[in-house]
Amino acid sequence: MVKFTQIVSAFINGIARSKVSLVGATMTTASFPILLIGILLELFGVVHNQYFGFVLYMFVAPAFILGLVLIFLGLFYFKGKEDVGVFTHEYLSEKISVPENFVKVRKLIFLATSLTFVNVFVIILVAYTGYHYTESNEFCGKLCHSVMEPEFATYSNSPHSRVKCVECHIGPGAQWFAKSKLSGTRQLVAVVAKTYSTPIETPVHGLRPARDTCEACHRPELFHGDKLYIIDKFLSDEKNTHVQTVLLLKVGSGGYLGAEAHGIHWHVARDNKITYTHSDWEREEINQVMLTKLDGTQVVFDKHDGDVPKDEQVYTREMDCIDCHNRPTHIYKSPEEAIDEKLLLGAIPRELPFIRKIGYEMITRDYTSHGEAKNKIATELRGWYRLKYGDIVNNNMPLLDKAITGVQAAYLENVWPSMKIGWDTYKSMRGHKDDSGCFRCHDDEHETSSGETISMDCEACHIILAEDEKNPEILKSIQGI
Ligand code: HEC
Ligand code: HEC
Ligand code: HEC
Ligand code: HEC
Ligand code: HEC
């Protein structure tokens, strides 16, 4: 009868005699306490450093598991010269195949089971906390800081800053979970090897269809009515005059409880499936738009002068939220929007003469880095005001300093020379700037065979109640002033 202590000593001898097992045992023993303490510190929120989790889950945890694998590989396959009794195939198969002998391996099984128990516990703990770590904003947005800085910064300034990256980029379900981990691994390699593209290419073609992600929170069929949409702007005159554009935007709905789908969210109603073909990666050149109703009827709109040469690649896509809301959270403003927003919020004081004009000029210049932009904006603005409005520089320096900080922020929050992100790198498709966005289809040039077009009628989408007006009448009457 083999004694339990004999088995343990055979186990230890086995490890000692196999170099492979020894390496494995060293790895496991060294990583075990680090891993356990690390996980506890993470779980209880003691450490908040993004590199801590990275080292823990990308190096220490794999070392622990690899160590375990090596121990057993070594025991069974890469033994030293001397045989190690119980840990041989011959021994085990002899004992297991002969029923009377089976009792002898009982203790071996007991040892193996208890060790496995501890290991499985640690592995589950690693898998659980590691999973949460790779789904965290720290991992997605901060780890590869220089690469993800623009996305993280724009996200943090957006209405979705409390939605986790993974809620839009991965969503629920195993299939996209696996896909995302694979592409995440590829991205990590790209960051280490510095092979990622600058700027990161968009549209993101591997993005999960938005209906699966956005609709976890939003229900377009329940949107209703029109939305009063006010756009605040400032003129480039001495007074930085405040003007407003007011639109009644026909946000509409996807149709609900018998109500017809209408307005802008008509595209995402259950009854309407819109697919389109485009010949460019950016989805700007739309050749054909196909509307398929629930009952199977189809309407095809072709752009005839946009006929694609036969050898050109054509992509097909089903329209979803992202064809309009491509910037729901990574919102890069135009220079006009950026400076106007800072003026509206008071981050740039409106009482400083010509600040809209000079500020705009400063942020639209080319700079090679954030550092250079900050310095040049500060020195140039100080220089300009010293020359033209010496009394402000002498008597009200804090006003100018505040303006400088505001103008710098307008630039720093939207442009990243390090990632080659300029003012027009990431365009929004939600309106019709530069004839893109809605006007990719609504251009009166996509036609059915009977001559109907996708409408460019201004009033199909909004009613313009005021355009660049100072104190618009319409707002006064609505607000009862
Ligand atoms: C509200 C949903 C949403 C959230 C939350 C979100 N993203 Fe995105 N993200 C998108 C969409 C939609 C696109 C696709 C843009 C396109 O295809 O043009 C995108 C694109 C990107 C891109 C490609 C470059 C770019 O700017 O378009 C990166 C990188 C990215 N996201 C990273 C992140 C990170 C990191 C976080 C968390 C800090 C995050 N995202 C949170 C919706 C989201
Ligand atoms: C986890 C929930 C969640 C997901 C997923 C989500 N959103 Fe949102 N979204 C919100 C919340 C909450 C708000 C309101 C934020 C506020 O007003 O402070 C919002 C606001 C919006 C707005 C209005 C923004 C504004 O300027 O007022 C739009 C448009 C929008 N979401 C589109 C999208 C799109 C497109 C997606 C998918 C790519 C998406 N959302 C995914 C929760 C979510
Ligand atoms: C045809 C373009 C288009 C499509 C497709 C589209 N939207 Fe919109 N959506 C808009 C426009 C334009 C607005 C009004 C501007 C704004 O509030 O952002 C808007 C507004 C919204 C708002 C704010 C509503 C409010 O009353 O303030 C949410 C939330 C939203 N969309 C979510 C979605 C979701 C989710 C989808 C996909 C199921 C979707 N949208 C599909 C163009 C579109
Ligand atoms: C991929 C092509 C495409 C894009 C991009 C697109 N639309 Fe449309 N839209 C259509 C088609 C097709 C119709 C149906 C035309 C018809 O049946 O006459 C339509 C119809 C509409 C309607 C009328 C809905 C109704 O009540 O019948 C509105 C409003 C509208 N779109 C707004 C927008 C807005 C706003 C945008 C941009 C944010 C936009 N669309 C972008 C293809 C598109
Ligand atoms: C297919 C729908 C659609 C059509 C057609 C359309 N627009 Fe728009 N327009 C929009 C949307 C959506 C916005 C809001 C953009 C945003 O979210 O900022 C907008 C915004 C605007 C703005 C405000 C932009 C700003 O920043 O000041 C003006 C002005 C405007 N449209 C004029 C027109 C005129 C003029 C026409 C007719 C030639 C027209 N639009 C046709 C959808 C449309």
The total of helices stands at 17
Any ligands, ions or cofactors bound here, and which?
heme C
Termini separation:
99 Å
- Please compute the radius of gyration using only Cα atoms: 32 Å
What does this 3D model show about the protein?
With 481 residues, the protein is α+β, with helices and mostly antiparallel strands. The chain folds into four domains: 4-134, no CATH class; 139-196, no CATH class; 227-328 and 429-479, no CATH class; 335-413, no CATH class. The protein has helices at 4-17, 19-43, 50-76, 89-97, 106-134, 137-142, 145-156, 165-169, 174-193, 210-213, 335-345, 355-363, 370-388, 390-395, 397-412, 458-461, 473-479, and strands spanning 227-234, 242-249, 272-278, 286-293, 298-303, 315-318, 446-447, 462-469. Helix 12 runs antiparallel to helix 13 and helix 12 (355-363) runs parallel beside helix 15. The radius of gyration is 32 Å and the shape is extended. Bound molecules: heme C (5 copies). One heme C (HEC) binds at residues 210-211, 214-215, 218, 220, 223, 227, 249, 251, 264-265, 267-268, 320-321, 323-325, 430.
What's this model, at a glance?
46% of the residues lie in helices and 11% in strands. With 481 residues, the protein is α+β, with helices and mostly antiparallel strands. The chain binds heme C (5 copies).
SSE topology:
Blueprint: H1 4-17, H2 19-43, H3 50-76, H4 89-97, H5 106-134, H6 137-142, H7 145-156, H8 165-169, H9 174-193, H10 210-213, E1 227-234, E2 242-249, E3 272-278, E4 286-293, E5 298-303, E6 315-318, H11 335-345, H12 355-363, H13 370-388, H14 390-395, H15 397-412, E7 446-447, H16 458-461, E8 462-469, H17 473-479
Antiparallel strand pairs: 1-2, 2-8, 3-4, 3-6, 4-5, 5-7
Helix pairs in contact: 1-2, 2-3, 2-5, 3-5, 11-12, 11-15, 12-13, 12-15, 13-15
